């Protein structure tokens, strides 16, 4: 006699999240399912919460060689979802280079809905093989803010980009409707880091990473995220020129600094810190999305930098609640 | 006497090899054309061009540094790299990073466009979505448009009317009409280069090699103008086995990479190229 329960349709590592607007006008979870090694937790909603908060976790705090996580997310009209993690996503070593650990995220966001994904960075251990694919299919009036970042590994154990391969691909698509027809690719941001490929060219991977300990990409799209995008673009445009010399006398300098507005002072302090902590970044507007790339010597420096930018601008906390920012501060 | 026999033997064998190679190239070209026309369902074109000699001719034209693409205006991040690492920069450190990054992001598009020139529109759009920095996009589009102009004004009249010629006509019409935030086509260099190489009869491998070598030549020429080294050292680097080996390695690495999986292999390169705009003084556009 067979099992009295219906056969489970999902496979190991599969998960599904559906968020919609409740009749009361707040975002709420309609469905949340997951299978080992993936785990999803949503704290019970508070009265004034701005978005549904969900933690993406994995049993044991990491992914073992060969694990495959597939999370699919639907954010329905006018609702909001924030996704966070609890600590670095560790990727453990693979028993052999052809055993790939993978995470796939398929997201659909409807009109006037928005998603904020600000996780902790992925931390690939020595000899790990990892592929991450994040596909966002957005309705024309949807908004997203998401961060994808990777660290050099366990630096305390001397790991310095010591994994075998790390591939991260992020795609933002504009969903087609009756008028437009098929989906249109807006942005495809792919990073392929491979130790064997680097060695073929005669250099270990860590040398090509030029002393960065963390490397990240922030992608922004949609009207809700426009102020954040504009903020990054204008701060980037206002960075001091590289190789310029300061001909001002000490008094002039002090005088000018005293006359700075609060926001100018904030910027110049941040720029000073960027210099000290080896933060390099750039921002660009690509086909209606803003893409920010940054690298820093240490994970903490990178976290402080991206966190301070997002907190300073304020839109993310305003629209999603300050919990959405917990992994970047 | 024995020596001269040997010499004439060598000469005749060399001659024979040349003839056989020419025949092989010719057969390949005909095979390609017939495959293309069967795909279209149309009749085989009456003129079986490009002939092997004309393809060699175009190989030289496309690899010539005098090809007016304006490649001299771009340093592909070298200038920015030098400014960011004032004390620790070396060209031998930058070169492999640049070659790897350029190959991993663009070479799959050259190969795909050469294999199927009809996919040019789609490839151009996909590459446009994948170039995530303003400065890099500007460099790619400026050279792509220049190549399209060279094609229209200079190459097209000498190439027989194969279906792809019409395709490029449609491409440039669409380019003129494209505007707005997300243009239908942008004319990036890599896919156009692949398609044009296919039309003028370069083999897939040749197209990839010329594409990569042109990048190295542009870099080295930029290095000379940025006073990294002199012209003789530049030729030495260019002629060196290391560069040849690197290009071959990159072509092999990307030979089967689908364009969907093309990506940045040296992330700091995006930062250097993206931050080129921040340099106080610049002699290049990228």
Automatic annotation (TrEMBL), chain A:
Similarity comment: Belongs to the UreD family.
A molecular function GO annotation: nickel cation binding
UniProt xrefs under PANTHER family: UREASE ACCESSORY PROTEIN D
Cited Pfam families: UreD (PF01774)
Organism: Clonostachys solani
Protein name in UniProt: Urease accessory protein
Keywords: Chaperone
From TrEMBL, chain B:
Coiled-coil spans in chain: 10-37
Keywords assigned: Chaperone, Coiled coil, Nickel insertion
Pfam families membership: UreF
GO MF, any single term: nickel cation binding
Signal peptide positions (record): none
InterPro entries, per database record: UreF (IPR002639), UreF_sf (IPR038277)
Sequence similarity: Belongs to the UreF family.
Protein name from the UniProt record: Urease accessory protein
Lineage: Eukaryota, Fungi, Dikarya, Ascomycota, Pezizomycotina
